[in-house]
Amino acid sequence: MRAAIDGSAKGPGGAWFHVADATVYFDHPVHAQFEHTLNIDLSDQSADPARRVAVELSAESARRLVAAIQEALDAVPAELR
Predict the structure, then answer these.
(1) Which Pfam families match (predicted)?
(2) Neighbours of 37 (CB within 10 A)
(3) φ, ψ (nearest 5 deg) of residue 69
(4) CA angle centred on 36, ends 63 and 73, rounded to 5°
């Protein structure tokens, strides 16, 4: 699944960069020690492909992250939305 996003990410060198694309998929991980993971890649397809943030989460962790994101957004006062 792909989504257009607008934000910033901090790379391994400590520098911030723009992210415009999110790719989310369930597959075999590259590094995480699970059979399958939910993988999230944040990047800017129009920029240097090395400038990306990748996350591999167990299915349980991914569900907890989704719930935490929803809870944080629901807690935002209406005047700030």
Answers:
(1) DUF6295
(2) 22
(3) -60, -45
(4) 20
Strand-by-strand arrangement of the 37-43 sheet = 2-10, 16-27, 37-43, 52-57
| Residue in the block written with tokens 């890649």 | 41
Contacts of 27 (CB under 8 A, 6+ apart): 36, 37, 39
Q: pLDDT tens for residues 1-59?
A: 999 999 999 988 889 999 999 999 999 999 999 999 999 999 998 888 888 999 999 99
Tell me the CA distances in angstroms from 11 to 2, 16, 34, one per residue in order: 21, 6, 24
Q: Is the pLDDT of residue 71 over 90?
A: yes
CA 27 to CA 80: how far, in whole Å? Answer: 36
